[in-house]
Amino acid sequence: MKKYVCEPCGWVYDPALGDPDNGIEPGTAFEDLPEDWVCPECSAPKDDFVPEDEYEG
Questions:
Q1: Burial class (CB in 10 A: 0-12, 13-18, 19+), 20
Q2: Angstrom distance (rounded) from CA 25 to CA 9
Q3: Mean pLDDT, the chain, integer
Q4: 44 within 8 A of 8, measured Cβ to Cβ
Q5: Counting beta carbons within 10 angstroms of the beta carbon of residue 43, is it exposed (0 to 12), middle (13 to 18) or buried (19 or more)?
Q6: 44-53 core/surface letters (b: 16 or more CB in 10 A; e: else)
Q7: Distance from the first to the final alpha carbon of the chain
Q8: Per-residue pLDDT at 6 exceeds 90
């Protein structure tokens, strides 16, 4: 599964880790995150994330 990066702050969503602090189980693909999920670091919306290989931060 592909990692995604928050463009505003650089936080990386790793599907292998999920986001347990916000109820996202390890193994959850980015595409399967709820639409209202936000970056745990800066609260940016899901739309502000890009695939890791496209991140130019």
A1: exposed
A2: 22
A3: 97
A4: yes
A5: exposed
A6: bebebbeeee
A7: 21
A8: yes
